[in-house]
Amino acid sequence: MTGRAHRRGAALLAALLGLAPTALRAEDRAGDPGHSEAPVLRLRDELPDETRVHVDVEIPPEDAVIADSACGVFVAGRARALRGEAHRFDVAIVLDSSRSTIEPAEADIDSDGEIGVATLLPVGSTFEMACTDPGDSILAAEVAAARELMRGLDPRSTRVALVTFAGDVPGDGRWSFLAKPFAKLFASSPAVTLEPLSSDYSRIERALEAVASSEPEGGTNMAAGVDLATAELLSPPGGQAESRPDSHKLAFFFTDGWPTLPHDARDEAANVREVLLAAERASASGVRVHSFAIGREALAGPVATLELAQVTGGLFTPVRHPADLALVVGEVSFANLESVALRNRTTDRDAESFRLTADGTWAGFVRVAPGANQIEVHARASDGAEATRALTVTTAPGGREPALPPDWVAVRNALLEECLASVKALRLEAERARAEQLRRLLREEIERERARARERAAEQRKQLQLDVDEESGPTGP
Prior knowledge:
The protein is α/β, with parallel strands linked by helices. Helix content is 31%, strand content 25%. It has 2 domains: 52-85 and 337-438, Immunoglobulin-like (Sandwich); 87-333, von Willebrand factor, type A domain (Rossmann fold, 3-Layer(aba) Sandwich), CATH 3.40.50.410. The chain contains 11 helices and 18 strands. The longest helix has 37 residues, at 428-464. The relative contact order is 0.17. α5 packs parallel to α6 (268-284).
């Protein structure tokens, strides 16, 4: 950002912390049990501009003697690319719950064997768009992406908050879902914190379930969603979450449209400017926003979501098909890592089941030979810095699997199911090739959409006479 944008954002920060008229916390919350925080780790004797890659192996311990299994040995840990920063993250997941997200995602999001389609339902004397299977709506695709983002995140280092945004449409007094969880808040506030920052991921899952069971309503007040997410990440005095000034603060912002509030929907320029102001406030507070524009409408007018990412230093991701959202969300890493690889140097084989999550947590199964095996983990940062960690494990008939901390049990079980399925089907390599091809095609499509979105955004700037700062830098990494 330029100095002008920083000064402007700093001047507006006071307004951000007084969000009571436009942003509301969910009411009936139980106290969050102790946050099982990991100690803050800092690299010593490090230049501020020098990236250091840190690799930790937590499972199994060095020189462990274990029994082999059909999938091999479970190995897990964390990797970070740091410039002297702390190893902790605070993440806000921001979901668009406006009326348009009730439309079908054109895929079987809930895996029930049926694909929901668009339909019209009578409401009074009019008809409203709906989806024959609510589990296949755009909102359901957002929830699925949020769950995919959280899979494998480490609660010792990463706290998560859940925010939704919509907004009352002037003259529209119909709120058909007031009996749903949290819904009484939606009618009076364009943005709602369903869960504040927490390391108890089960709370976030329950809130996501509530979102999935609620009927979307209202307009699209993007600015309110950004502002409330920023407030949650700052953890101001009086909030339920402990303030962590040294943590990385990020928001994952999902929307299927363009801003239609807080001003009249016909005043598009005014509503876009509100999003840009909210982006400047977030940037002045050290919050980086990764934005996702979902579907045709969002990509037809992308200037707000594109600039939201650009102003805050985040990544803008266009997703033409809502069903692809859960797949592409995993491409965004906030640990500054390009890749992590797990390999058995003794057998010269890579891990067959492996997962790397956005916060740098990694885990996988690697096949082993009888006796001693040298396991190697190699991490590469986005700027090319690298680090390798090696350990020796020995397989023997009398060995036992190391006891797993509770945080790793679900990760191991998910990877084990994946591995066993591939063993039975004998098609792991083919599945990998297809998945990589799909990711490659999606990445190519995203790059094309980014270019088109920039062109359309430039046209929108001229049409709406927006004062957008062009010196903020590129949107992508």
